[in-house]
Specification:
The structure holds 2 protein chains of 2 kinds. By secondary structure, chain A is mostly beta strands. In chain A, the strands form 2 sheets. Chain A has a 17-stranded mixed beta sheet that branches. Chain A has a two-stranded antiparallel sheet with strand order 15-16. Chain B is built from 13 helices and 20 strands. Classes of the chains: A mainly beta, B alpha+beta. At the A-B interface, α1, β1, β2, α2 and α3 of A face β1, β2, α2 and α9 of B.
Chain lengths: ~450, ~550
């Protein structure tokens, strides 16, 4: 130890002695770049194996060059001609208050929808937001939307008005109930036999909404809506049977004359969701509760037999397992109607199945007077704005709440990856599996978007 | 027993013989002759979208199949140092660098920038709003402001990092913080505004007012701004991350093989300057008595010191690339159970301080946001060179740089200084453990080699160390000389008679039984003075 100390002391003394700056001296002579290294004989570090590997892999490299060439060309054009800025200049005002831009939505189960979206975020100078949109293709043959939402009014209330027209030509109908999918048999099939059929529908819809905070995380939601639907078999079948080729038109309530009804709903919402720090996106909360209970009344007009109460409850618990971004989501969902099955248009029956509610099944795979779904989902981050999740959904429909059999649930499971920013949801790619098969979806909407009952498909 | 252990460990180090490397018997080059007269090169335009496509996708795929080699740095001299060039000027450690010189880093012979400020245009592009101005002396500056809601942050980080990087040896503009009032800004009659498409028009008072509405002002109505002095010469764009500039005959070393650029990875990690891409460099075509040549600069450090992570609300900044497939795969495979290295970071809420700390800092695992080609080629010798520079800064020099950030909250200077010192020491420990960190290698007239072991110089808790050395002649044949000593002065050598006594001494530092990679010291007699001298150093 002593010798080490002596050595260290001597070393320190020498370093200290070496510290004083050298006297100013003229610049040293400049040496040609190829002589700077001073090397006269270099090590031979070539590797024959590596050279052979390069030759073998060169076709793959060439292939990747070919694949990337058009992408690189496009990227160069974007920069060379400032296309991003030019598009923004054409479609939006500098401060982003209003603008118009093209849209494209892809969902693997329904295809590509192209459209246009226009907005003004301050129509009358008090934060009123106007949005106009149109789109074509995919599940929707046509869609037109117009909405006007107020800024905060007295008491923090926001009101809104929305008008829409949508033409679907890929709507599913599997009968009513929990049956396993079977091939079409002798028509007409009974409604409790599940055959994958398709139909088309045109929907005109207008609704007025208001949301008023009442205390802390609680708010009251009021909705009034009018909906007019017409059905037909002029659908994109994709190999499936037209609904009326399988089921009796008279038994599918509403198909013949359409649905024409008013709906009013009052609801209570609770939202205590939050993030543990500013580095976690608002669309991926760390913990808290989200709940909504509501009840509404539907009154049919012009031959629509609707005269019933709809009730629903959606409760989610976000549990922070670790660091605010490993989150367990537990969800229970229940929706029901009080009408007899033959007094409610078939599209207004509670439905489950699809990329959002009871994943792993076709859209609207099950419908009946009552539908319930329970979900266990685990969310975790891949990177700052890329998350992943894995889930198990279990659900069932029934004629009434008492008939919901927890021992005979339809179960779907799977996982997905989602992209988002700090404030906005961007994209979700999901794979879900069940007894019905595996379903891949690419969607531009979150799984847990609030389900708007007044705006049912 | 100890000798046997050391021998086994040395064998385990993979020493694969001396190789064929030999150096010319001359003094090492201290300055590169890269200022030959050249015609004005074509201006390189930074195509951001294309660059991102390349670095995150195309280049990654290509690297999988190209089996790329990593070469030794090509801009180093025989003793493994970087000589002065148009890329780098040895400053700290090469000469006394007073705190006053750090405070005015990059200013050169120019006077200190002072108002009133004559506005001649608006800044185009970039993350923050800004103006083009002239100061009272007529010198031209870019004037930048902090992003609203992030007072002192970008402007402060820029100046602190600029001072330190200039002192380290890089060419930078002079950046400084100024305080001004609205009436200190005068609109020049010839002032122009330019949009992103290059359209120009006369600038109005309304345009100026609009810029000022985008920024915060202090309670007394004054504004804080960063002024960055225009560089001398004609700008011809940023230098490429890899390859050469084809129209610059002075550019003789592929950029990914330049130690000056590779070494930035170490310095930028220290400063947590993650925003590194081609538009953070700028070549200026300048004229002096010898003609025209390019001088290579780095600039725009406003997102250093963790500001990028704060500003972009990205907790992984400094730990992962913007799209980091390695991180994504690890998280996916483990279903998020993998505890990512940036988790648990806690930075005190001090005005002007970004997401900057030292507790989670890993200099070897640090990442820039956009994969920068030279950083993919860093070798231990490059890291050692840069870490040496980092370690040369004294706390007083670091504090002098931090004070130039002119932070309103006095705690910011203390915190940034303390954090930089902590990160500096972590940097030194990490890189000095990857090589035998021997520096100031010399040989005296008695043929005794001496050196400083930088780990022992800087870190008192360095384990007991011995230096195991063997010597070889010009042909690579072992000489009857062996050293195994705790002293940093080796026993005298007996130089062979041929090839000017050319001798290669291979030295390993052995700490706590662990042999570090060797340093090979090439020695020969000066043909004139006949005294032995070090003519080459090669680090494993």
């Amino acid at each position: 130890m002593r010798s080490f100390l002596i050595t260290f002391t001597a070393l320190a003394a020498r370093v200290a002695a070496a510290d004083p700056p050298p006297p100013e001296s003229p610049a040293p002579p400049a040496v040609p770049a190829d002589q700077v290294s001073g090397v006269t004989v270099e090590d031979d570090d070539s590797s024959t194996a590596r050279e052979i590997g390069r030759v073998v892999l060169s076709p793959i490299r060439l292939g990747s060059e070919v694949v990337f060439a058009p992408l690189r060309g496009g990227a160069w054009l974007i920069e060379r001609y400032q296309l991003r800025d030019r598009v923004m200049q054409v479609f939006t005002r500098d401060d982003g208050q209003y603008g118009i831009f093209p849209t494209a939505f892809v969902e693997s189960e329904v295809g590509l929808n192209l459209g246009v979206h226009a907005f003004d975020n301050d129509v009358f100078g008090h934060g009123e937001r106007l949005a106009l949109a149109a789109g074509y293709g995919g599940e929707l043959k046509q869609r037109y939307d117009a909405s006007l939402t107020s800024g905060k009014l007295a008491g923090g209330t926001r009101v809104g008005l929305r008008l829409s027209y949508r033409a679907w030509d890929r709507s599913n109908f599997f009968g009513i109930g929990n049956g396993n999918v079977t091939a079409p048999m002798a028509a007409p099939a009974p409604l409790d036999q599940a055959v994958h059929t398709r139909f088309a529908q045109d929907v005109s819809h207008v609704e007025a909404t208001s949301t008023t905070p009442i205390a802390g995380p609680l708010s009251v939601d009021l909705v009034g809506a009018y909906t007019l639907r017409h059905f037909s078999t002029d659908a994109e079948l994709d190999g499936y049977a037209p609904t009326l080729n399988v089921y009796d038109e008279m038994s599918v309530v509403g198909f013949q004359h359409g649905a024409d009804n008013f709906y009013g709903e009052a609801g209570l919402s609770l939202d205590t969701r939050s993030e543990v720090d500013r580095y976690i996106s608002h669309v991926a909360p760390s913990s808290g509760w989200y709940g909504h209970v509501g009840a509404g009344f539907t009154q049919g007009v012009d031959g629509d037999p609707s005269h019933y109460v709809r009730y629903s409850a959606d409760l989610r618990r976000y549990i922070d397992l670790y660091n605010g971004d490993r989150v367990l989501v537990v969800r229970g969902y229940l929706e029901g109607v009080t009408a007899p099955i033959d007094e409610i248009p078939f599209t207004d029956l509670p439905r489950i199945g699809g990329a959002e509610l009871l994943r792993g099944f076709e859209h609207d795979r099950f419908r009946d007077r009552v539908a319930a779904v329970a979900t266990l989902e685990y969310d975790f981050p891949l990177q700052s704005w890329i998350g992943a999740y894995t889930f198990v959904d279990a659900g069932r429909v029934a004629h009434d709440v008492g008939s919901l059999d927890p021992n005979a649930l339809h179960v779907g499971w799977g996982g997905g990856i989602e992209l988002h920013t700090l404030d906005a949801y961007l994209l979700r790619a999901q794979a879900a599996h069940s007894e019905d098969g595996t379903f891949i979806s690419l969607a531009f909407a979150p799984t847990y978007d609030t389900r708007a009952r007044a705006r049912r498909k | 027993m100890r000798a046997l252990l050391a021998t086994i460990l040395l064998a385990a180090c993979g020493s694969a013989g001396l190789g064929e490397l030999r150096f010319a018997n001359t003094n090492p080059a201290r300055r590169v002759d890269d200022r030959h007269d050249i015609a004005k090169p074509t201006t390189r335009v930074f195509a951001r979208t294309l660059y991102m496509l390349d670095v995150f996708f195309a280049n990654k795929v290509d690297e999988l199949f190209a089996l790329p080699d990593t070469h030794r740095a090509g801009d180093v001299n025989a003793v493994d140092e970087v000589p002065d060039s148009t890329w780098f000027q040895n400053r700290i450690g090469e000469r006394e660098l007073g705190v006053d010189e750090i405070r005015s880093a990059g200013r050169g012979d120019h006077p200190e920038p002072t108002g009133p400020w004559t506005v001649v245009g608006t800044k185009v592009g970039g993350a923050s709003p800004g103006l083009l101005v002239r100061d009272a002396s007529g010198a031209k500056f870019v004037m930048k402001f902090d992003t609203r809601g992030e007072p002192d942050m970008q402007t402060g980080a820029d100046v602190v990092a600029q001072k330190l990087l200039w002192a380290a040896g890089y060419n930078t503009p002079e950046d400084a913080i100024v305080t001004l009032r609205r009436e200190d800004l005068k609109l020049a009659p010839t002032a122009r505004v330019e949009d992103v498409f290059g359209n120009k028009r006369a600038m109005t008072e309304h345009d100026l007012a609009e810029v000022l509405t985008q920024i915060d002002h202090r309670k007394d109505g004054s504004y804080r701004a960063l002024v960055s002095r225009y560089l001398d010469g004609v700008p011809v764009g940023g230098y490429a991350a890899d390859g050469l500039r084809a129209d610059d005959p002075n550019d003789r070393v592929a950029h990914e093989d330049r130690r000056t650029l590779r070494g930035q990875r170490v310095l930028f990690a220290w400063l947590d300057n993650t925003d590194v891409k081609e538009d953070n460099g700028l070549d200026m075509w300048i004229a002096d008595g010898a003609g025209h040549y390019l001088l290579h600069h780095i600039l725009d450090f406003g997102l250093a010191l963790g500001v990028y992570g704060y500003d972009q609300v990205d907790s992984a900044d400094g730990f992962a690339e913007t799209l980091d497939y390695r991180v994504q795969a690890a998280s996916l495979v483990t279903l998020g159970l993998w505890r990512r290295p940036w988790e648990g970071i806690d930075v005190p809420a001090i005005r002007g301080v970004g997401r900057f700390e030292s507790a989670h800092f890993d200099p070897l695992g640090w990442h820039d946001r956009y994969p920068y080609a030279p950083f993919r080629h860093v070798q231990s010798a490059d890291g050692f060179w840069a870490a040496k520079i980092v370690m040369r800064f004294t706390e007083a020099q670091i504090r002098a740089a931090a004070e130039q950030g002119a932070y309103e909250d006095p705690r910011a200077v203390d915190y940034i200084t303390r954090t930089l010192v902590e990160r500096q020491r972590i940097t030194g420990r990490a890189w000095f453990a990857r090589v035998s960190p021997l520096d100031h290698i010399a040989i005296d007239a008695g043929a005794r080699i001496s050196f400083d072991d930088l780990a022992r110089v800087y870190f008192r808790d360095t384990p007991a160390t011995t230096y195991v050395a063997d010597a070889y002649d010009y042909r690579g044949q072992p000489l009857a000389w062996h050293a195994d000593t705790a002293s940093t002065t080796l026993p005298p050598l007996s130089l062979p008679a041929d090839h000017d006594g050319y001798t290669i001494v291979e030295v390993h530092a052995v700490r706590a039984g662990h042999a570090l990679p060797a340093v090979r010291i090439h020695i020969a007699r000066d043909p004139q003075a006949h005294a032995p001298r070090v003519i080459g150093i090669r680090r494993s």
